């Protein structure tokens, strides 16, 4: 599998190049940077601190259209949609890790997946995807008597809130409790808010320093509290998951998949 990475000099882009270098059965086919970047033409391996990989970074997907089979995209919602449309048009698979897409943008991504396969997941780590299963089980067993609160912490550069992972955790818990997250979610309380309603699911966001990504889901009732916690300490955990998804896509039919499909957790 020849894999292309767009946003190759970003926090995830560099980790993705490292993960591709150390994975079996995949190779780096192309690395794409923002047009105008001073790194265009530089060796992608050197951009990632991995030494030469003999792949020169380019400024657009069109410039490397014959050099890859699957694109890995951890960028911005707007760019991801452009990239997904390009992949659909050119029969390329795509792995999307970008978060912060609104409902309309998610619908457009689903539209692109009717032409070629897409893996789209807000968190590519094995640990978070297992945690989603644990959350569903906990919510089913604990039911409506336990208040659910989701706390997430990330580095100060992160631009979307709550994190995509926190929102997915909320969806999983809401589904297991027969609720609609759109109706029961409460974000960042402030002021004279009154007592908590029984069925709300609260989200709290911390942005500070270099935190890679931490999620904690509380189930609290009179007399006890359970916390299910995941802490990422390296972006390589997301990058390895994305590369695993890219390999998994080989030979897959067009359609929308997620990491639960890739990891066989459904
Ligand atoms: N699903 C998962 O497991 C994970 C998801 N994420 C998500 O991934 C996304 C990216 O995160 P992160 O790597 O931290 O962010 P960065 O800002 O570090 O990386 C984004 C990259 O995209 C590049 N970019 C922007 N516009 C273009 C363009 N037109 N062409 C090519 N490249 C472009 C940026 O370039 P420049 O710097 O020059 O602007 C930057 O290098 C976020 O949505 C984040 O939430 C993050 C970690 C894990
Ligand atoms: O922006 C990040 O860094 C991360 N974003 C993802 C999210 O929004 O859930 C996943 C991970 O926690 C890191």
TrEMBL record:
NAD(+) binds at residues 7-12, 97-99, 121-124. It catalyses: (S)-2,3,4,5-tetrahydrodipicolinate + NAD(+) + H2O = (2S,4S)-4-hydroxy-2,3,4,5-tetrahydrodipicolinate + NADH + H(+); (S)-2,3,4,5-tetrahydrodipicolinate + NADP(+) + H2O = (2S,4S)-4-hydroxy-2,3,4,5-tetrahydrodipicolinate + NADPH + H(+). Residues 127-263 form the Dihydrodipicolinate reductase C-terminal domain. The active site is at 154 (proton donor/acceptor), 158 (proton donor). Residues 1-124 form the Dihydrodipicolinate reductase N-terminal domain. One of its GO terms (molecular function) is 4-hydroxy-tetrahydrodipicolinate reductase. SUPFAM superfamilies: Glyceraldehyde-3-phosphate dehydrogenase-like, C-terminal domain, NAD(P)-binding Rossmann-fold domains. PROSITE patterns: DAPB. Its EC number is 1.17.1.8. NADP(+) binds at residue 34. Keywords: Amino-acid biosynthesis, Cytoplasm, Diaminopimelate biosynthesis, Lysine biosynthesis, NAD, NADP, Oxidoreductase. (S)-2,3,4,5-tetrahydrodipicolinate binds at residues 155, 164-165. It is found in: Cytoplasm. Pathway: Amino-acid biosynthesis; L-lysine biosynthesis via DAP pathway; (S)-tetrahydrodipicolinate from L-aspartate: step 4/4. The keyword NAD applies. It comes from the Bacteria. Homotetramer. Belongs to the DapB family. Catalyzes the conversion of 4-hydroxy-tetrahydrodipicolinate (HTPA) to tetrahydrodipicolinate. This is 4-hydroxy-tetrahydrodipicolinate reductase. The lineage of its organism: Bacteria, Pseudomonadati, Pseudomonadota, Gammaproteobacteria, Oceanospirillales.
């Amino acid at each position: 599998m020849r894999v292309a990475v767009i946003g190759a000099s970003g926090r995830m882009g560099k980790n993705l190049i490292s993960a591709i270098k150390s994975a079996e059965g995949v190779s780096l086919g192309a690395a794409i940077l923002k047009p105008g970047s001073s790194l265009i033409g530089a060796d992608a391996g050197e951009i990632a601190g991995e030494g030469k990989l003999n792949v020169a970074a380019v400024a657009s997907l069109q410039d490397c259209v014959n050099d890859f089979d699957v694109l890995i995209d951890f960028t911005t919602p707007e760019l991801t949609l452009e990239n997904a449309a390009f992949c659909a048009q050119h029969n390329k698979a795509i792995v999307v890790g970008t978060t912060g897409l609104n409902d309309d943008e998610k619908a457009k991504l689903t539209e692109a997946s009717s032409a070629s396969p897409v893996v789209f997941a807000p968190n590519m780590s094995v640990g978070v995807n297992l945690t989603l299963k644990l959350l569903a089980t906990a919510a089913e067993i604990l039911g409506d008597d336990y208040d659910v609160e989701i706390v997430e912490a990330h580095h100060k550069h992160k631009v979307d809130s709550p994190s995509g992972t926190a929102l997915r955790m909320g969806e999983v818990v809401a589904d297991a409790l027969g609720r609609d997250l759109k109706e029961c979610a409460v974000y960042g309380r402030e002021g004279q808010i009154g007592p908590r309603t029984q069925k709300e699911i609260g989200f709290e966001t911390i942005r500070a320093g270099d935190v890679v990504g931490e999620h904690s889901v509380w189930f609290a009732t009179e007399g006890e509290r359970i916390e299910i916690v995941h802490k990422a300490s390296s972006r390589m955990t997301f990058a390895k998951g994305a590369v695993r998804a890219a390999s998994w896509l080989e030979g897959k039919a067009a359609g929308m998949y997620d990491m639960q499909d890739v990891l066989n957790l459904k």
